[in-house]
Amino acid sequence: MDDIQLPSWRHVFKLDPDKEISDEALDKVCLSGTDAIIVGGSSGITFDNTVDLMARIRRYELPVVQEVSDLDAVVPGFDAYLIPMVLNTTNPDWLVGQHQRAIEQYGYMMPWDLLIPEGYLILNPECTAAKVSEAKANLTKKEAVAYAQVADKLMRLPLVYVEYSGAFGDMDAVKAIRTAMSQAFVIYGGGVTTVEQAQEAAEAADIVVVGNIIYEDMAAALATVNAVKAVAIEDNI
Ligand code: 1GP
Q1: Residue 171 host element (H or E)
Q2: Where does Mg(2+) bind (predicted)?
């Protein structure tokens, strides 16, 4: 396994197994200078489409991690597994229920060392993840910060993922969240399509995730890598 050096990551591409990507496009993504690839999505994720995408990314040297959203689609062979715990869900299934059932069933064979729990804070009510996980995503900045603090200070999760999937979020809220953290790293994802947005997100969060634009405008997606990496962020922790 490659060592997962989360604290050194600044830019990550997220690839969706349910979406087509050509070998040529995948080559560009994997050789872009990004720090890692996350494989995951909110719908249409299966074992078969995940194993296929993982095998293709595996030809490259960069770390590849799976963000688990469906137990049936967990594929052995990733460098690590991000385990979302949806902080602002209204259904405890998405916070601990599915996790409990997974451990009850498969606990004896869990690669515990490879699991990285993330406090997932979904702030775009329109995104699929918000709908699927029944999240109360219309939060004030103060409410959002408090949820992130639950993850950081009470649950002591190593990551807080601020998810605006499909829409560029409120960077003031992301900054406020990061400032309030004692030990968790803050990942931001959602609607990063331009160099300016990539820079703004890089000023607000420890790690910036870029997803959809890969499938819409490859040149714009690739430009976000250097844009993020050019921004130095002060140590918060
Ligand atoms: C989605 O946070 C990621 O889970 C990235 O969002 O697809 O909007 O870039 P976009």
Answers
A1: helix 171-179
A2: 16, 42
